[in-house]
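Dear colleague,

Thank you for sharing your sequence with our group. We've completed the structure prediction you requested, and as agreed, I am returning the results in plain text so they can be pasted directly into your records. Please verify that the sequence below matches your submission; if there's any discrepancy, let me know and we will rerun it promptly.
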Amino acid sequence: MRILVVLSFYAPHWTGLTKYAQRAAEGWAAAGDDVTVVCSRHDPHAALTERLNGVTVVRSPIIMSVSRAVFAPTLLTTISHLLPQHDVVVIHTPFPEARLVGWLCRRSGIPYTCIHHGDVVLPNGLRNRVYAWLMRVSAQHAFAHADAVLTHSTDYADHSHWLAPLRWRVQVVTPPVTITPTEHADARRLLQIPHNALVVGIGGRMVHEKGFDLVLNQRASLVAHFPQLLILHVGAAHMPYEPAVSLLNPEHELHVRSLGLLTDDAALARYFAACDVVLVPSRSDCFPSFAIEALRCGVPIIVHDTPGLRSIVWQATAGRVIDCADPVALQRALANLPARPDPARMAQIFDAVASIATTRAILARTVAPAQKSAATEQIFQRHLANEVDMAYRRRAHTLVQFLELADARTILDCGCGQGVYVQLLRALSPATVVGVDRDIQRLREAQPQPVLLADLAALPFGAATFDRILFSEVLEHIQADDEALHTLYRLLTPGGILAVSVPCAHYPFWWDPISRCREWLGLSPLIDHPWIATIWSNHVRLYRPAQLSALLTRIGFVVEAIELQTRHTFPFVHFIVYSIGKPLLDRQLLPERWRAYADRRSGNANDGRWWHPFNVVRAVFRLWDVRNESRIDQRGPGVIIVAKARKPQADAPL
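Please find the predicted structure tokens below.
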């Protein structure tokens, strides 16, 4: 892959975010990818373009800074110039220009992934509030149109204000940490630390967010209980955008030292070798590498009860979570230190190679849909030539991509109806395609035959029969939707894929104005009305994306992709297609020569005469639908939710 990475700062600039970005970029380059990083030129002496450990770095000069942000006028033009040369873009947020870069990617048709490293947290003040708001709006807009959104822990994803509107889309990948412990029996001597000192390590930028004041404010009581206490800090002690109390106040100097910023893993490992424990009192932190580095070096950690931060302790089953503002809790924790973790075990849990490979696989999945062969696209166009429902056309493309037909062997279309997908899948793949439905009338109309008559509750198949299952527009008709998904889970082979689509409860007004107006009036939706087929017709429920994602996860699936589709719809299109057009077809009220242009099963018979009334109507609908071709805002509204879920290789018992 050709990967373009975009962020504010890159090496030799040194923060947790830049360390992550550098390790990931160099890992992808080592795997054979062509990686380019575009960032600002934080150091006026740094090269505008250089090659660092297999990664091309392009820097844009800075003319001014505002709080944490910098203004580099050529940054966006550089990104725009490089976009056509790459397959996928990675945006590390927070990043002021995230929204604009996302727009450039959509305009160029390049998929992009956002990796979120934490919400911006600043002290009170009007300027800081405005800055934080602008950063959040930019990031959330980028998230809403991204092909994938990643962060470092489920705990942080659940509590992030920035990620909250799209929590259902967020995937979790632990950041890569590469440090290894070092044997330094004389580490304390080298750092001039008394042998009998109780060394408490703290690390990070000296800002309010990191919570160092929670510890320093208790200095007197801590020293009274631990006379040999030494708080040993590493990191930047002065940040230009946020004045803070220095660690090196005269009243602290006997018990507090700062080693400054350590950018070398060997020096950092030596620092950890001198520590008895590492204390992380952050008020806000996504998943700090500093805590993982300590564990990998065999140093126990004590962390504040902060979302994201505390999940490191949970994941490692090592360390302790406390309220660092509670003097009693802190004193007890220091008096009874957690057991030292096993570095080898920590290296397995926080595996940098696995982290880089997992992120790379996610990027590859975002690239794959854009790589369609001309022959495949021709089959789609031929089979869907008569399709007048643009939302149906779009989800058909997506669901087939989700099924990964290249290595499929057995495919089940559960709820196949008239067999439209069966026909399409048999044209696209040599795999065995089986269609089942319980509606005998629909099955009699199905083309091609054979298809099976069966109810989902009594399917005539054994466990692990299929490696692919399509389940499109069926789940919303079933009372016990969890039981239905359990059945499909059983039928899938380990590693098999379920491609599912359901209608969305947050649908656009013009898709079904009748249902929407009734909802506004507090009335129940129309169900099984004799002549108005609303979006609720024969439906038990509609879904929210978060609801579908949670349901699939609860069953045992791993949700690899989920998205909302089709926001812009022709006025009353649902009524036109399903309340007028469909009954005319079903009751055979159209002349036979017109059915070839109207029946979605007979797209091959459409000779493409543009002047035919049905083809004219389709052309109008397609023209209206153009705005949906790029990814719509995933915050909604949308007509359809599509999801790709995989059964784990190691099958968990139901």
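Summary note from our side: The chain has a mean pLDDT of 88.

Kind regards,
the structure core
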